[in-house]
């Protein structure tokens, strides 16, 4: 099952809405609260990165029996140095966005922290795509 | 203590104004978190927390909803935007306001027995 939502750059009105819908749907189909929370956080950070940095993009999830894949891709400026962008506190967000409490340089580190695997691919001047894997707990109750 | 502190207890004790989510004042509070950086809250706050911030724009509701926060206290006399109040009511997240600064709010919450969440 795939859920996919469009995300518009600079649309702070709708920002966070896709992640909320994803989390809500996961809970409705019986995914445990902690997994839904982790997916929600990863999807939120991916969505906010598109809102803050890109022109437009999409964020979504593929729900599989053993795991949930979060994906996001955008048309935007791309990331020149992914290792640098992964560092806590590093941000290229504009000042007005930072005043709103965004762009603290925590988004990508959060995505890494709350996922079991994170892959970022980016081309400067073109866009960025992100895939994150969140494994579902084993039946024994991990 | 015999029972968990509720959002209603906090509103009463700190003399906060409840500007949204009035039907959810029985929400129980687990821990407290104070931050104005949204991604920091996403990483550090957890289900049932009371969140103290000076941010007032509507995105705080998405953050609260995704982390499962039981109430937001807007400190320092800041007034939440109309859209924030609307979203808080839609999501059922109590939104409290107070003229007290964040430090004072956190201190009062601590006095009520609410502790910070220990990061794992």
Compact overview of the structure:
Chain A is built from five helices and five strands; from the N terminus they run E-H-H-E-E-H-H-H-E-E. Chain A has a single domain, classed as Histidine kinase-like ATPase, C-terminal domain (Heat Shock Protein 90), CATH 3.30.565.10.
Describe this structure in words.
The complex is a heterodimer of chains A (142) and B (120). By secondary structure, chain A is an alpha+beta fold. Chain A has helices at 17-28, 33-53, 82-85, 95-99, 107-114; strands at residues 2-8, 56-63, 67-75, 117-123, 127-135. A five-stranded antiparallel β-sheet of chain A has the order 1-2-3-5-4, covered by helices on one side. The mean pLDDT of chain A is 95. By secondary structure, chain B is an alpha/beta fold. Chain B has one domain: Udp-n-acetylmuramoylalanyl-d-glutamate--2,6- Diaminopimelate Ligase, Chain: A, domain 1 (3-Layer(aba) Sandwich). Chain B has helices spanning 7-13, 38-44, 59-67, 82-91, 102-111, and strands at 17-20, 32-34, 50-53, 71-74, 95-97. In chain B, strand 3, helix 3 (59-67) and strand 4 form a beta-alpha-beta unit. The model of chain B has no long low-confidence stretch (mean pLDDT 95).
Characterize the main sheet of chain B: 5 strands, mixed
Q: What is the CATH fold-level name of chain B? A: Udp-n-acetylmuramoylalanyl-d-glutamate--2,6- Diaminopimelate Ligase, Chain: A, domain 1
What proportion of the residues of chain B form beta strands (DSSP E)? Answer: 15-25%
Number of strands of chain A: 5
Shape of chain A: globular
* Number of helical segments with 4 or more residues of chain A: 5
User: How much β-strand is present in the residues of chain A?
Assistant: 25-35%
Give the averaged pLDDT of chain A, no decimals.
95
Number of domains of chain A: 1
What's the gyration radius of chain B in Å? 12 Å
Report the structural category of chain B: alpha/beta
- Fourth-level CATH superfamily of chain B: HprK N-terminal domain-like
Element order of chain B: H for helix, E for strand: HEEHEHEHEH
Write down the CATH class of chain B. Alpha Beta
Strand order of the largest sheet of chain A: 1-2-3-5-4
Oligomer: heterodimer
Low-confidence stretches of chain A: none
Q: Going across the biggest sheet of chain B, name each strand in turn.
A: 1-5-4-3-2
Biggest interface and which pair forms it?
A-B, 24 and 22 residues
Helical region count of chain B?
5
Helix content of chain A: 25-40%
